[in-house]
Amino acid sequence: MDGLGGYVLRRLLFLPVTLLIVSFATFYITRWGPGDPVRVAAGAGFSDPEALERVRHKYGLDKPIIEQYGVWVRDVTLHGDFGPSYRYRDRTIGEVLGPKIWVSFRLGLYAFILTFLIGIPVGMFAAVKQGTWLDPFAIGSFLFFQSIPVLVTVPMMVLIFAAKLHWLPAGGFDGMFSKSMVIPTLTLTMPGVAGIARLARATMLGTLGEDFVRTARAKGLNEFTVIVHHVARNSLLPVMTTVVGLSLVGLIEGAFFTETLLGIPGVGKFIFDSVNGRDYNVILAVVLMLTAAFVIANLLVDIALVVIDPRIRGNRTGAA
Amino acid sequence: MSNKLTLGILGVVAAGIIALAVVLIVVVAGGGGDKKSATTGSDTPTASGTKTSGSGTTTKAASGELRLRGDDPLFLDPAVAQDAGSALYIVEIFSGLERLDKDLKIQPDVAESYDVSPDGKTYTFHLNKKATYQDGRPVSADDVKYSWERALNPDTGSVTAENFLGDIVGAKDVSRGRATTISGLKIIDDTTIAVTLDAPKPYFLYKLTYPTAFLVDKRQIESNPKRWTQKPNGTGPYKLKEWKLGERIVLEAYANSHRGPPKLNTVRYNLSGGSSLVAYEDGDIDVTGVGLDDLDRIQDPNDKLHAEYTTTPRQSIDYIGFNTNVPPFDDPKVRQAFAMAVDRKKIAEVVLKGAIPVANGILAPGVPGATADDKTKPYDPEAAKKLLAESKYAGKLPPITLAESGAGATVGPTEEAIIQFWKDNLGVEVKIQQAESATFFSDIDQGRYQMFHLGWIMDYPDPEDVLDVLFYSKSKQNNSRYSNPVVDQKLEAARIERDTEKRLALYRDVEKTLIDDAAWIPMFFDTTHALIKPYVKNFTFAPTIVERFHDVEVNR
């Protein structure tokens, strides 16, 4: 595993470079755009330009962008300080963001598990049934759910289950073991199943025609063993490891529409509010967090693939 | 393909779906013993005792707890906060020398009385000797001085301080960093402080009712400068007992309040969203606002909720503003034509379902000087057409855009209706441009819009707060760039006119001129629609944000 260790180390060394590039781009773009946190907070009420300018001065927002960026990089690297939130002024970004991530994570966890738990078997089923009506039927029925936007499903479910039947709360988040999880879990699960199922189906089909499958069948193995042990393990496992690994990032990304419509205080809604409020430092911190999470998830997926499939090792470590 | 395989895969699919079903059932059935919410209890008070909320934690439902829906405040520093969301909590936790009651009359608060000098420039406040911070420390004149000087200090970062305290002699020296003490403040003894103004301004007391002028605790701020707002020590009737971001805020009565002990023990805000009307019907909260979509049902006298329905006018106005500097709205005739071509009554009836009143002027009802008669331009398509034909842009109107704040791609039905009237009655196609709020306000400041749809909420009930702030030619907030020497002169006179009747007459004149000149199209005033449980007593919605829990009783 020596080669792998070096590979991981090299990849990790690139992380700060990636973050620096991403942070500069984000820093510049957000501050370049119209409006600023001081003006938007003043709204229609208190827009005396001189008073606003004094507040900008206090936060250093009146300096050239490049100078502000220098200060920011210095504070982050030397003090681990990502700067103040311009909206929540007495809280650190971690304090405000932490609970939101925790909410989004718990909100998305069931859906994350269920999407794969349903999607993979459906895809396998469809692949095995290729050429029969069951193949398009299986995929098609989940495509139906995928094609209904969350903007439609959420209000519909709220109307039926909360407003009419009073079975479920109309929104909010009361923890993972509460009725408030039902609507978000359904809305987040159903549209994702078709994508996973189609991927699983395509991967399976690609492998079903391989020589070793024919050999396995010729050996007289029963079809179940062939599909599960030979086809699925060789093709489905690596592909799904990649997809599952990268989808993990989605758990901390939040679900903007679902959260907004149901009034759930998660990351998705928070990012939207932060952008609207021009809370520069918060936007930046969120972008960097997601960038880092994505880079690390990628790396973990690569490592997992090597562990699962030794054939990959030579290629990867050699290329890196 | 073997049957075994098909069965196997089907089995796995079924297992997945069953897993989903099981999770949902477990979640639904075991939802923390959430009470069955079949239409019970919405108009009959539920038996007192314990009741469980959705999370399964036991909520104390003893009499004396008011349960509401709310949002996280951004920042509980009264000197800095400028959003209504934070102000709602600030007015309960903190207080100032004077306060507004629910009818917007000035009432003594930390100051039990005041004297005004004959020239109207010096106010001497006598502090209530019983007034204490919530940690028990008595309030002194030094605390007043500290709180105001801190609010003005540039390091505090307050946008509002100069607005509300800037009339005090020397206050602007502090806000602009030229001094650290306000020269116009004089401490006479421990509980007496004299305040000298730069001119005899009758609206000064109103400004003291705004959070910017509230009292903060010097010791607490100096010992914990960055975080004191998370557990503030104010002089208001309620202490901030608990604040869990995104989950809940609990206010607890401060029994030694100089206004007497609050009748309510705690106020509990649930901060995690969802439809508050459903929560209200389920008996989880005691008060809720009602949106436009549910209004029809609630207003039906046969609906079981109708008896709990209440409305309160709010002191705010929705308007179409013109940039009076740019074509075609630099010609008053064009503005007048646009104003007279919109049937606001129809829009209020059809689109807004009669939920809010058509504005009869610029001053909302309850603002001193406001009159009941309709001062606005009547809906008259013929006259409008004629005015447009007489204008200097007749037959050569430039393209016109109405700007509004909004993040969505869809235009609101009110705007749709407005531009339809202009199209039908004037034959003018007006485009709508939406911008999210940061862009919108930045563009308004720079005078980039020809016409915009906006609202104004009164900070205190004095006509100065809208007429002078928005229409005085040199006001920095004059976003319609309106400039009229006659109006300016009357506004200047009204600022220092000490005869109330004469002063209000000046403002009424200004209002009339502004409407005749069509500097704005005043569209609608605002109304709060709400439901209050019958076991909640003395709960009122005020026309602006004022302290309102002190006298509330809950007998569940």
CATH class of the domain at 317-526 in chain B, please? Alpha Beta
CA-based gyration radius of chain B: 27 Å
Fold-level CATH name of the domain at 317-526 in chain B: Dipeptide-binding Protein, domain 3
Q: Strands of the biggest beta sheet of chain B: in what spatial order?
A: 13-18-14-17-15-16
Query: What is the average per-residue confidence, as pLDDT of chain A, rounded to a whole number?
Result: 84
Under CATH, the homologous superfamily of the domain at 317-526 in chain B reads Dipeptide-binding Protein, Domain 3
Gross geometry of chain A: flat
According to CATH, the fold-level topology of the largest domain in chain A is: MetI-like fold
- Total beta strands of chain B: 20
User: What's the name of the CATH homologous superfamily of the largest domain in chain A?
Assistant: MetI-like
**Structural class determined from secondary elements of chain B:** alpha+beta
Oligomeric state of the chains present here: heterodimer
Work out the count of structural domains of chain A. 2
- Per DSSP E runs of 2 or more residues, the count of β-strands of chain A stands at 0
Largest sheet of chain B: 6 strands, mixed
Question: Which pair of protein chains has the largest interface, and what are the residue counts?
Answer: A-B, 79 and 88 residues
Helix fraction of chain A by DSSP (H/I, runs of at least 4): over 70%
Percent helix range of chain B: 25-40%
CATH architecture of the domain at 317-526 in chain B: Roll
Q: Structural class of the helices, strands and pairings of chain A?
A: mainly alpha
